[in-house]
Amino acid sequence: MQELAFLPAHEMAERVRLRDVSAVELLEAHLQQVARNNVRLNALVTLDEARARARAREADEALARGEVWGPLHGVPLTIKDAFETTGLRTTSGFERLADYVPKRDATVVARLKAAGAVVVGKTNLPRLALDTQTHNTVFGRTNNPWDVERTPGGSSGGGAVAVAAGMSPLEVGSDIGGSIRIPSHYCGVFGLKPTDGRIPLSGHIPGLPGTARGVRHQGVAGPLARTVEDLRLALRILSGPDGVDTEMPPVPFQEVPRRELRSYRFVWTDDFGGMPVSAQTRAALAGLARTLEGAGCVVERRTPEIDFDAVWTAWGQLLGAEVGAEIPLPARVMTALHFRSMRGDSAINRGIVRGLWGRMTDYVQALSVRDQMMAKVEDFLVGWDAWLCPVTMGAAFTHRPSGDWVEVDARRVPYMEGTCGFSNFFNLTGHPVVAMPLPPASGRTLPLGVQVVGRRWKDEALLSVAEALAEVAGPFRRPPGV
Q: What's the pTM value of the predicted model, to 2 decimals?
């Protein structure tokens, strides 16, 4: 039963369709993993066991009649507690929503159900998804399955833990500054931040239910999984306009065949404006570059000429302005005080606080920086299949108060730069990114990941590159003891 829980989602679906395993058996395997691991990890915060069992039985009965609901028929999975789910408590880690039970599904939830998925429960996140660790006063702290004394990252931390620990084969998270990629990196799983506009965020909290939509840029929904193929399956199911988010372009999903690894061209860097990265991160990225060269790929180390302080400030201003527009004044005040009180002088923090209280001219200027950076990255990627760079400065760090210093080898770094300084750049520009595990190395006990960045709107091509990369980077590795 435990081995069933670690199959890829697409293989689970195939085995259900072939009747090698029932949807009920799959669900029970996952519920056993929840019972085995969730008390110490605290990844799932709302378990919908009764309805999940009923749905799994219905899936098996439908299959017996010759009905296949969709590509995830009978597959159990989890949803980040930021996405509204009909009849199931959805809190976004916010005290005011501790008992909120939505009467509608977020678009991504509705699409997963229509594809035949069995929703097992909701996963933990920081308060209103606004941190790079996962803890809140409603449900407490989530722990990393590789070391419970360390953070799984945030904000989709509960989902990454659920996937890594066999409690879910597929999770839908959200990402406005690294919230899919950071937890994927810290927990050793795969995550896709799609192009801004590919997957609807409709029904995501924040904004608070019943309020006007503030987040118009940078925030995306996307999957976390244990294989690239499952990321592709999820993109196929989740992408496209929903009639609610009126700004989503009708970009159809297109299959892009994977080429031979040696045919790809990669550019890589471990330097974003002189930010420190751990020696292990540098060694892992350089090792991957050497491996790719040995496989016949064209590989070059290069960094575009970017003013990263301007990037971090503009990202913070847009985040502060748009998220701030969605939350009540008291919460906005507390958010501003929180980021202002963080240790160290940080361009990101200054930008967020300025955005929370900024003028329209500041907001428009941040959008202008976004336009410039988007064009620079697009120009930089001409002639390359992907850009490889760090996800964060290093591996998962020990739990600490939000805003405390983050250590990179022997150096202390401000909290936000230390966690999302490498990832939020691609929220600003809207480029698609796959976060995927790097190969294990002698003396390293924690996972490390890499960001694989592609051209805007070329998500399917990027996934094909990532699948080829996985040939040399290796598959998902199960954390010890789960």
A: 0.98
